[in-house]
Amino acid sequence: MNPSISKKILQFEAYINDTLKSDLSKLSQKLDEKNSEVAEFLQLKSIITTLKNTKSSETGFKTKIDIGNNFFVQAKVEDASHILVDVGLGYYVEFSLDDALVLIEVRIKLLDSQLKNLRTEISKTNAHIKLLLLGIRELQGIK
User: Which segments of the protein form a coiled coil according to its record (predicted)?
Assistant: First the structure.
């Protein structure tokens, strides 16, 4: 095999392994993070809907709170008509249940669009990897 072709093949393989696969790993990690955020918001939406349907927001309810290391403390919530929602950067804002549902819907739509963009980027990176692998096979003369 021609030495210049061997050198090009090594460069392509290094680019795939060093750059494209690390980019793919980072994108997959971001995708997992966004999916977990969506799951948290869907869980919060379910809890708020349950509170509204059972009228627990007005009458209160008993619960157990994890204070760390699986130690639980009983708690009684007198008024659950307002909740604190994390709006980012460590800030929490008090919302009524209806307003919180509106915010959650907006956040879920935003996260869904971010997930769509991440999936597109992952597809592009996978396509680049496959294209380079096909080029390497062609340079090597493998059919």
Answer: 17-44, 101-128
Q: Residue 121: which CATH number?
A: 1.10.287.370
Say what the pTM is.
0.80
Instruction: From 138, 114, 101, select the one nearest 9 (Cα to Cα).
Output: 138
Say yes or no to pLDDT of 56 above 80: no
Q: Which of 112, 118, 111 is nearest to 24 (CA)?
A: 118
Domain enclosing residue 72, as ranges: 3-140
pLDDT in tens, 79-91: 888 999 988 899 9
Tokens 């009524």 correspond to 96
Looking at the structure of the chain, the number of domains it has is 1
- Tell me the three state secondary structure of residue 26: helix
